Amino acid sequence: MIPSTLDAVVTEIADEMRARSDRGVVASYIPELGRIDPNQFAITVVTQDGQVASGGDCDVPFSIQSVSKVFTLTLALGLAGDRVWNRVGREPSGSPFNSIVQLEREKGIPRNPFINAGAIAVTDVILSGHQPREAIGEILRFMQFLADDDGIYIDHNVAASEDESGFNNRALANFMKGFGVLDNPVEYILGVYFHHCAIAMTCRQLATAGRFLANNGVRPETGYSVVTQERARRINAIMLTCGHYDGSGEFAYRVGLPAKSGVGGGILAIVPGRASVAVWSPGLDTTGNSHLGRIALEMLTTRLGWTIFGPG
Ligand code: GLN
């Protein structure tokens, strides 16, 4: 792929997305997110050899929300290794991101680390042995390190807004605590969880932070190994099967890449061996995934032949 072709495709996609009137619906159950202008769109592709192609509002920070769950899973696996899998499964849930239905049948063990219940269990692993403030700092510094940008911050208004409206997440956490699946006090775990969901990043920063997953666990610019090759592959596998909740099958069918979405409208997609891609459009579809973000990624993988399911 010569960079000029990549630039042209990315520019074309950004132009097409800006012109569309179907934008999905901005998440309003977190009131602070409900205030976001839905007419924004951004895309950044960072290739393995360091080419960067961007379009739209790629330097506007947005709330990464559940995209943070890829990075908290990475941190928790680093801290506790495969013991993480005693607390959380690796199966797609087929249920909405905030669903509680499977928890009773499965004795408080969430289906996977990317639904809310699973991410709360992962946050509990990171919190153990730390004060909540330290755990939040660890997660933020990890994002800054991966993106090579100390300017990445937590939007405290979003964290407070989610705390005030977090009835559903409190129900999930208390239910799991009742089964003995969580070690730390529920309010501490949720405090850390709300704050990592409230990390604000631009598409450029997010695509940069995802590069180790496209490069066998290694940050290509420094040669620093973030995780082993095997672990990077496995995180990608979970992104493919669980990254879009009950929309994961449709996303794999249409886009064909491991990816993780968030209700802020961001998606991080990994093209193994090739590139890390971030898109952002705040309007969501009925499964809580970015409507135009998914369409943009479908265009990108179709036009460049970048799916993992066949030669590109
Ligand atoms: N912070 C959000 C919540 O817990 C994350 C959900 C998401 O991005 N899907 O509801």
UniProtKB/TrEMBL annotation:
Q: Which domain of life is it from?
A: Bacteria
Going by the UniProt record, its keywords in alphabetical order are:
Acetylation, Hydrolase
Give the InterPro entries listed for this entry. Answer: Beta-lactam/transpept-like, Glutaminase
Q: What positions does the entry give for substrate binding?
A: 66, 116, 162, 169, 193, 245, 263
Listed GO MF terms: glutaminase activity
Q: What is its EC number?
A: 3.5.1.2
Reactions the enzyme catalyzes: L-glutamine + H2O = L-glutamate + NH4(+)
Keyword Hydrolase in record: yes
> Which family is it part of?
Belongs to the glutaminase family.
NCBIfam families xref list:
Gln_ase, PRK00971.1-2
* Quaternary structure, from the entry: Homotetramer.
Q: What is this protein called?
A: Glutaminase
